[in-house]
Design goal:
The complex is a heterodimer of chains A (about 280) and B (about 270).
Chain A lengths: L10 H6 L1 H12 L3 H9 L2 H13 L6 E5 L5 H24 L5 H13 L6 E6 L2 H14 L5 E5 L12 E7 L8 H11 E12 L5 H23 L2 H13 L3 H10 L3 E8 L4 E7 L2
Helix pairs in contact in A: 3-9, 4-5, 9-10
Chain B lengths: L3 H12 L13 H16 L13 H17 L4 H11 L3 H10 L2 H9 L10 H5 L6 H12 L15 H21 L5 H15 L2 H9 L6 H21 L16 H8 L10
The chains are: A alpha/beta (about 280), B mainly alpha (about 270).
Chain lengths: ~280, ~270
Amino acid sequence: MAPTCKRRVSGKALANGSVGVIYQVFENVAEKYDVMNDSMSLGIHRVWKDILVHKMNPSPGTLLVDVAGGTGDIAFRFLNYVRSVRERQLQQKLRHHQNLSWQEISKSYQEEKSNPLGDSQVVVCDINKEMLKAGKKRAQHLGYSEGLSWVLGNAEELPFDDDKFDVYTIAFGIRNVTRIDLALQEAYRVLKPGGRFLCLEFSHVSNPLLSRLYDLYSFQVIPVLGEVIAGDWKSYQYLVESIRRFPPQEELKAMIEDAGFLKVDYQNLNSGIVAIHSGFKL
Amino acid sequence: MLRGAAVRAALLRAVRGAPGRAGLGRAVPRAEEEEEEEEERQRGGRVPLYPGHIPTTPLQKALLAAGSACAALWDPYRHDMVAVLGETTGCLALPKLRDRMRNDPEGYRILQERPRIRLSTLDMARLGGLPDGTLGREYIRFLEDNKVSPDTRMPAKFVDDEELAYVIQRYREVHDLMHTLLGMPTNMLGEVVVKWFEAVQTGLPMCVLGAAFGPVRLNARKLQVLATELLPWAVRSGRNASCVLNVYYEQRWEQSVESLREEIGIFPPPAVCV
């Protein structure tokens, strides 16, 4: 059976503007997105995403918007994190109450069952229907239902009110936005005062030896992996090139500051292959 | 189909939209084209030579060959991987095939005229109306019985010569006609027999690998039939036959399959149920 026919990135799409072209790239890759991420990064992308959520350190009751969150990686990690924090909270509460009656103990179990997330919520927003579809399927498969919602939206023009969210994350998504400054402005708008902006993205490696190895791997191996696993050389060639064109750490930091964020900082992971930028709306 | 360079340029322009980089001299189109070509050269080493061509470095070809071999073994229905394997390993066999075509008058004409076998170029109704036993009628019967279409063949992507890309394309499009001439269906056993024939005929490493590894997935009974009857016949026919790519099939739809077999040198197929 021949692989499902993927729409080639066509001249007509080009005429509609670059957003359409990038849309088709992700429409093509949506199905195999997670498999490709694991193969290309040898599974390390999972560690990067874990570090992002640990840095976020969300407490129960946090309202998160994960933009370009497609297949739900950050959202699921967020839900796991707040669930375990909540469990620990309830356990701590129990420990401080000595001499509990059976009624009180069963009430606390009920509390845990009825509100395991502590009112935390995550909204996954993505411009691409296929990616959202893949994400919803994954959520169902993994058993995530509470505290999770899926919204179709454009990072440059979010369908949310002002001052709504506690945390805004964008993991490996801002690179694909045409007007990064607009996306940053929207991030500022939808965050509550005191809210945090977190961006996980490929960045620049300054170490020359590592940079050469990284380039070699990126240009020689990744398109091959794309062709062999997903039958799509061009999309993964695009991926590698878009990483090279993306602003380096300091430049992105300046752009985030321009949008109005304060206490902007970045943390390099793996010598700059990936960086987490953080800023606050104060 | 849009050329790779133009697509990439558009995507890069989109990503470059960040404020700090806006002033990179977009005013001169020619300079931009040169910049794109320079990028292309840095990347794969060459500029695309035909629509759908993806230039690759030797390292990329080696990785592709290994990866596609594994993928094809893992999932034999990944026809695209079999195709990629053929393209990346055919650098020695394809020029030889092309030379054989050049040295034959009919093959030479095929190289000049570049006929393509696809639904848009075939008159399916006319071919279906031909008498039984003719190449055209039997080809249509084969397509219908096995529910295949000539349009599912992958275009060549990784061959770095425009003429050789056509040769491998022709080989792929003629594959269904091989099934018809050899009388083999598209099940695993039939495909293995055709691969053995093609391996002897073309010498393409992909055919050789397919012929060697294909039988792994057959049960004992089929293996026996393969080894005792079908294989010896396929190999003998392959050796005896003239180059199958030198036949202008599009001009021989009315010819009977038997006479075409005799002309090429394919022995009549053994009477076994495949």
